[in-house]
Amino acid sequence: MTTTNPLNIQEHSHGGPLVPVQTRSERPASFNHADFPAVTGREAEWRYTPVRELAELIDGPLDGGHTELNDPAVDGVSISWIGRDDERLGSVATPEDKAAANAFTNFGEALLIEVSGEEAKTAVIDRLGFGDTPRAAHVFIDVKPHAQALLILRHTGPAKLTENVEMRIGDGAKVTIVSLQEWDDEALHVSSHTATIGRDAFCKHIVVSLGGKIVRLNPTVHLNAQGADGEMYGLYFSDAGQHLEQQVYVDHAAPHTRSRVNYKGALQGEGARSVWIGDVLIRQTAEGTDSYEENRNLVLSDGTRADSVPNLEIQTGDIEGAGHASATGRFDDEQLFYLMARGISEPIARRLVVHGFLNEIVQQIDEESIREKLEHKLEEELHRSTSALLGARADQNEGTAA
């Protein structure tokens, strides 16, 4: 990328005006924050995002010091800090937007998580103590060939954070990586997750966003080796005034690769907002690809907005299959009536319907104790949100009666 033409805009093949980037695969990238033009909110990658509220993470000075975390002390999972000169950093991903480039420019040391050993293992890594200072961070997850693990990155407390997370999945490995956002209500979190999956390796990436004021977590998977298999799941519950965003990108570059994408979310409360953009690229070299992506949104009240944009780019006709689906629907009053007719109160009936809708994603976590904790956290979120909704409705009815 050059500063004279940072968007890499090319002249149209038939002459005439310059043509902007048309597809996700053409998006320019740079480690240098100065290479990116000013963010206005009209750019394809920013048009759904409240950029004014993220200005200090996109362009402002950032504290690059590392913060508090716990070491779960699990055999086969090593946690350490490495300097910017480590050759692994930047080997998986180059920042594709200005916030990611700002994070890469300003982080001091990177958190390194190394996974080895063919026995199954679970590690929960709590990341906390970010505070209210705008911060930059970098995480590198290095999964060795044939290693197996379930890794959970859990985020809590206050935060103003922009970061990059690189994941290198070795040949034959089998790993599940979960990013759990349980931030405080006013937290801001912008994160780019990028994985390369090795030959005959399997990676399941799961995003669970429940807390925070604005959370924009964009995962990318590159299937660069034959037999690579990637599954990407997401669960989000957007409450009043909350913005939860995911821009997913799957890049099939090698023969006989497979991907599945399934994101599900619920929205309730005035100003609740969710954004899901799903891009899948099947390159000419990706014969025998098997790919499918979908996004489902459940709208629980008025005053919400769910944007869902699936995109599929196919450059070869020799594939096993490819498809995508998107749907946004309102709460089913018939289901609510059915439950209430059997003596279940409205708050509990609402929580049962939403829990049943989202539980498909929870079940993707292959650890019962973790699923139970997540289900409990989801129940708390549903209870809080439903109580607020019914309370507002009661106040409205009292005002009407008066």
UniProtKB/TrEMBL annotation:
InterPro entries according to UniProt: Fe-S_cluster_assembly_SufBD, SUF_FeS_clus_asmbl_SufBD_core, SUF_FeS_clus_asmbl_SufBD_sf, SUF_FeS_clus_asmbl_SufD
Protein name per its UniProtKB record: Fe-S cluster assembly protein SufD
Source domain of life: Bacteria
Among SUPFAM superfamilies, the record links this protein to: Stabilizer of iron transporter SufD
Organism encoding this protein = Pseudoclavibacter albus
Pfam families, A to Z: SUFBD_core (PF01458)
List the gene name: sufD
Q: Which NCBIfam families match?
A: sufD (TIGR01981)
Domain SUF system FeS cluster assembly SufBD core stretches: 136-357
Q: Which family does it belong to?
A: Belongs to the iron-sulfur cluster assembly SufBD family.
